[in-house]
Amino acid sequence: MRHAKCNFPTNYAPPRGNVLLLTCMDLRLMDDIVQFMDHDGLANRYDHVVMAGAALGALGVPAPGRIQVYPHWQTTFLDHLDAAVSLHGIEDVYIIEHRDCGAYSKLINKTFGTSFEEQRRELRAHRRHARLLGRLIGARKATIKVRAFLMDLRGDVELLDW
Ligand SMILES: [Zn+2]
Q1: Residues with beta carbon < 5 A to ion ligand 1?
Q2: Gap between the Cα atoms of 120 and 100, Å rounded
């Protein structure tokens, strides 16, 4: 849904070069994602990789016990990262996680309620996966800067810091 004004974080300098963007496939947020990227001055400057669960998907969907449900998704993501680096010289990766993610309930059986505690638990789960993916990206190419965000269903965005 398009909103007149969303709340976006501004406590960082937006990238000056091209970016690889990883998001979930959730159809409710596609226009909100474009709006956020426009806000960061990145219109037409990002390669968009879409995977169910965003970081969760790009990690190959690590289930409890650390077994990857879809290890080939991780290979696919890293291949896309390599392609984005060589084709567009990307130096930054944006990971946009989102609340109420169907992949979390369908793929790893994790659901979150709407209470304050549940919302914190949801944020922590997304931050953990984004951080793990950030490490994986760093191991692939140490100079890439990774920023992760959590979007809610209004399209509001917060920075996931670690
Ligand atoms: Zn999702």
Answers
A1: 24, 26, 101, 103
A2: 13
Q: Is the pTM of this model over 0.90?
A: yes
Q: What is the 3-state secondary structure (H, E, C) of the chain?
A: CCCCCCCCCCCCCCCCCCEEEEECCCHHHHHHHHHHHHHCCCCCCEEEEECCCCHHHHCCCECCCCCECCHHHHHHHHHHHHHHHHHHCCCEEEEEEECCCHHHHHHHCCCCCCCHHHHHHHHHHHHHHHHHHHHHHHHHCCCCEEEEEEECCCCCEEEECC
Distance from Cα 27 to the centre of ligand 1, integer Å:
9
Q: Which residues pair with 147 in a beta bridge?
A: 94
- The CA 137 to ligand 1 mean position distance, Å, reads 21
Identify the band that residue 1 occupies on the pLDDT scale cut at 50, 70 and 90.
Answer: low
**What distance in angstroms lies between residue 41's CA and the mean position of ligand 1's atoms?**
24
| Crossing angle of the two packed helices 71-88 and 116-140, in degrees rounded to 10 | 60
